[in-house]
UniProtKB/TrEMBL annotation:
Domain Gfo/Idh/MocA-like oxidoreductase N-terminal: 4-131
Domain GFO/IDH/MocA-like oxidoreductase: 140-287
Molecular function GO terms recorded: nucleotide binding; oxidoreductase activity
Keywords, alphabetical: NAD, Oxidoreductase
Keyword NAD: yes
Signal peptide: none
Pfam families noted in UniProt: GFO_IDH_MocA, GFO_IDH_MocA_C3
Protein name as it appears in the record: Putative dehydrogenase
Organism, scientific name: Leifsonia shinshuensis
Length: 389
């Protein structure tokens, strides 16, 4: 069986998730499209890299990501760093002929995403952007129902991504609150996942109208590079300015005629990973809540008036990806499973020489939507979303 050497750059939260996926993918998907070999991991210092290699099962470690990209032994470059490094690493990796998976948001702006997209197109390498939530089996089942016409023509999409890990003013000024590193706040960090789901389920955006707010203008400075996502609180030390949004709300006109809304906050006490959507069609409705991610709720107009209502489907072997996961519905789908499925689909595309979605083109289109949302919030006007060129 073919083995492909992975060079993983960034050993934080996503470094953990991706390493787990590479180890576990062949355990679930067998025969595997290829065996991912955890070859080299790069971190910000030699000490962090050595620790990450030991912890995540990599053969080698380095503090120089360029040496990974340039290593002829590496087949796949995995970008799991903060957002400001995605473009530089991806463009270098494409020029070195590596297949690339990059974490989301693909880039800080549409212009930056375009450079990355152009680089992978020119190099002809397989590329993927890690919008893993669309690979939750219940979300893929919603897509199947919509594609089959089970709920008719789509009228509306209401999506949320609500969290509370930054609601405390003592949650530190990590890279996620710095525009130069992150590009944007709740918009690029979390709303972007729901934008990807909306494109996946409903289609392209025609125009947006948005509002954005920053609720906590200063946070305690943080010394380490990794973001502890609110699990560590700052003390009485110096504070620095937040220059990204804490909350975004947007109304959407879809190109296909549907209308919708997406909102995201990291300051919504009581919400943890509250990715939800509700899709209404002319023949029914579909509801999803990631905090109950084994379940998809559906209501069909064809049910008689006396029994119409939402029913709950627990995803299992009969549903997308299900036969390779666990043998009984409701055993429990987790975040790890979405990353294992993502790794499977990425390595399948490499092994078969095909493309995979969402790819850098999707990441670029999503970045253009993010740009339009920012422009709309600044100008208080509807803004058209361009297509990628
Ligand atoms: N798909 C998802 O569900 C999801 C979830 C969280 C984060 N993300 C994305 O993943 C990326 C990483 O986020 P995270 O939560 O893992 O962040 P993190 O802060 O936990 O980890 C980032 C790591 O990158 C390392 N790093 C910084 N500079 C480096 C360099 N020059 N070379 C090598 N390593 C370097 C840091 O030391 C840190 O360990 C971001 O783009 C983020 O938006 C995606």
């Amino acid at each position: 069986m073919k083995q492909l050497n992975v060079g993983l750059i960034g050993g934080g939260f996503m470094g953990k998730a991706h390493s787990l996926a590479y180890a576990a993918m062949p355990m679930f998907f067998w025969p595997a499209p290829a065996i991912p070999v955890r070859h080299t991991i790069a971190e910000a210092s030699d000490e962090l890299a050595a620790e990450a290699a030991l912890r995540f099962g990599f053969q080698r470690s380095t503090s120089d990501w360029r040496s990974v990209v340039e290593d002829p032994a590496i087949d796949v470059v995995d970008i799991a760093t903060p957002n400001h490094l995605h473009a530089e690493i991806a463009i270098a990796a494409a020029q070195a002929g590596k297949h690339i998976i990059s974490e989301k948001p693909l880039a800080r702006t549409g212009a930056e995403a375009k450079e990355m997209y152009d680089a992978v197109v020119a190099a002809g390498v397989v590329n993927m952007v890690a919008f893993n939530y669309r690979r939750t089996p219940a979300v893929a089942l919603a897509k199947k129902f919509i594609d089959e016409g089970a709920i008719g023509r789509i009228l509306s999409f209401r999506g949320t991504y609500l969290q509370d890990w930054s609601a405390s003013p003592d949650s530190p000024l990590s890279w996620r609150f710095q525009k130069a590193i992150a590009g944007s706040g709740a918009l690029g960090d979390i709303a972007t996942h729901v934008i990807d789901i909306a494109r996946y389920l409903v289609g392209e955006f025609d125009s947006v109208n948005a509002m954005m707010s920053t609720w906590i203008p200063e946070r305690p400075l943080q010394s380490s590079g990794a973001d502890a996502l609110g699990t560590v609180r700052g003390g009485d030390g110096p504070r620095g300015a937040v220059d990204v949004d804490d909350q975004v709300m947007t109304m959407i006109r879809f190109a296909g005629g549907a209308i919708g809304s997406i909102e995201a906050t990291r300051n919504g006490y009581g919400r943890n990973n509250f990715i939800t959507f509700e899709v209404h069609g002319t023949e029914g409705s579909i509801v999803f809540n990631y905090e109950r991610r084994d379940e998809l709720q559906v209501c069909f107009a064809s049910d008689g008036d006396d029994r119409r209502g939402f029913r709950t489907i627990y995803t299992g072997p009969a549903h997308p990806y299900g036969k390779d996961l666990w043998p009984i519905p409701a055993l429990g789908i987790g975040y790890g499973e979405t990353k294992i499925i993502e790794a499977h689909d990425f390595f399948t595309a490499i092994a078969e020489g095909t493309s995979v979605s969402p790819n850098f083109g999707d990441g670029y289109q999503t970045a253009l939507i993010d740009d339009a949302i920012v422009e709309s919030a600044e100008t208080d006007a509807w803004v058209d979303v361009p297509g990628i060129d």
